[in-house]
Amino acid sequence: MSKVLIIGAGGVGRVVVHKCAQAKDVFSSITLASRTKSKCDAIAAEIKGYDIATAQVDAGNVPELAKLIRQVEPKLVINVALPYQDLTIMDACLETGVDYLDTANYEPLDTAKFEYSWQWAYHDRLKEKGLMALLGSGFDPGVTNVYTALAAKDYLDEVQEIDIIDANAGSHGQPFATNFNPEINIREVTAECRHWEDNRWVESAALATKRSFDFPDGIGPMNIYRMYHEEMESLVKHIPTIRKAQFWMTFSDNYLKHLEVLQNVGMTRIDEVDYNGQKIVPLQFLKAVLPDPGSLGPLTKGRTCIGVVAKGLKNGEKKQVYIYNICDHEACYKETNSQAISYTTGVPAVTGAMMMLTDKWRGRGVFNMEQFDPAPFLETLGLMGLPTQVIESEEWLHLT
Ligand code: NDP
Predict the structure, then answer these.
(1) What is the pLDDT of residues 63-103, one digit of tens each?
(2) What CA–CA distance (Å, rounded) separates 356 from 194?
(3) 343 C-alpha vs ligand 1 centroid, how far in Å?
(4) How many A from CA of 319 to the centre of ligand 1?
């Protein structure tokens, strides 16, 4: 029985609150804090039979956060605010002696730079205090790291190549909208592509490499585009037999057409421009005029399919395993008032929190998901709504 403090009342925060409230045996008390308290109150009002406490906090301000943590006295802080706030929330956890969990690695506001170095640098300080931080406990990063660990533990003697493939085979019917925070989403997909090959990062233009992948369970073939994604960095560090790692995501032609125009006209810039004597960041302005991802919940139909194709050797022979999950947007909305993108992030965050609070996953310092036993996590994840499916084969699929 543990008190938890959730920071961030967005799409993912909503799912985290709903799912924590379903696991009363683990989460004895829930506080939701965010920049706008009315958003916390609206989420709290959706939960029947569980009193959720709410608070206002600026997650970029360490003294404010530390004060709130001392008031709430949680065993764990779940950070589902924005990646810009990871370090300040980690600082406040260090100061107050509380464990930490997030779903996305730290990004500086002024450069779209995705790397774990800043957060890994907290390892010794957390270790000295006997604290634990679990990084990237969403779906990707998160479950995809655990799927890779499962491939290494149960299916292959040596994982040599991985393709992480993220499909949103659903549609919200809007001309252009992003399924999670538009600013974070567009920074990610417009970043230069990097993949791991022969012990080094190979750079290429964003989304320049396109392939088709035949998704299972009736979803069928869809175009996938190669891009950089943060879990590759920790996976190649912790599973050093991986000599090639690539990340792929589906995008509709419509999404890509709009994105290209927005980029060409400068609307995805993240530096300040002068507008009528006022400084504005074009991407932040764009976020203000795009549909709120939270409003897409009732409109989104179809399924997501996110998984890992891992190739390697078993008993000296070539073997491939595809480990994936399929999630239905409308079922997620019915259960938590959120579509599958928020759901597939929030449920693993709660599952990671359960692993920490029940000591099934425990360590001192900073950890990524693949460093722990995948079995208890995947068992709980399935019970929480995201079951794992596995297809084994002797053939290796080569995307590039
Ligand atoms: P939203 O934009 O919907 O929600 C973010 C929330 O954080 C908002 O409620 C916002 O407040 C709050 N917030 C922002 N700045 C501050 C601040 N300074 N102080 C306090 N609260 C603040 O984002 P999502 O819910 O879609 O995403 C949440 C996180 O999940 C992000 O880090 C994202 O990168 C990550 N993510 C991870 C995925 C994975 O699979 N690993 C996939 C999708 C998302 P306000 O409402 O007032 O703006």
Answers:
(1) 999 999 999 999 999 999 999 999 999 999 999 999 999 99
(2) 32
(3) 13
(4) 39
Write out residues with Cβ below 6 Å of ligand 1. Answer: 8-13, 34-36, 39, 57-60, 80-83, 85, 103-104, 138-142, 180-181, 184, 293, 342, 345
Which of 37, 180, 300 maximizes ligand 1 atoms within 8 Å of its Cβ, making it the mutation to test the pocket? 180
CB 138 within 8 A of CB 348: yes
CA dihedral (346, 350, 353, 355) positive or negative:
negative
**CB-based contact 27:21 (threshold 8 Å):** yes
Q: Pick the atom of ligand 1 nearest to 292's CA.
A: 3
Region of residue 117 (left: phi > 0; alpha: psi -120 to 50; beta: else): alpha
Domains of the chain: 2-135 (3.40.50.720), 143-339+384-393 (3.30.360.10)
Q: What is the CA radius of gyration of the chain?
A: 20
| Reported pTM | 0.97
Burial degree of 55 (CB within 10 A; 0-12, 13-18, 19+): middle
